[in-house]
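Model it.
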Amino acid sequence: MVTTAAVLGTGIAAVVENHNAHWLVQAHKASFIVWFAAMTVHVVGHAVETPGLAFADWRRSRRNEAPRASTRLTALALTSLTSIALAFASLDWARH
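Modeled.
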């Protein structure tokens, strides 16, 4: 969570400063590298167990044994769509 906040905070600060503060851009790049390393360790750590859990959840939801499975799927879809929309909306920010 700390690395995510660092990436977001330095990125927003760099945009607000219109890339005039070179140290903010460097801090953003460095925090992204640290975030990416932490995220990679996290994802790899769950890589073995996740497919089995996901398929079990999907099977239970198909049999109506996991009532919150559809809520999780909806949240995942909305988060993904929102993230994609924000990514496209912020493309011009990086070009300045």
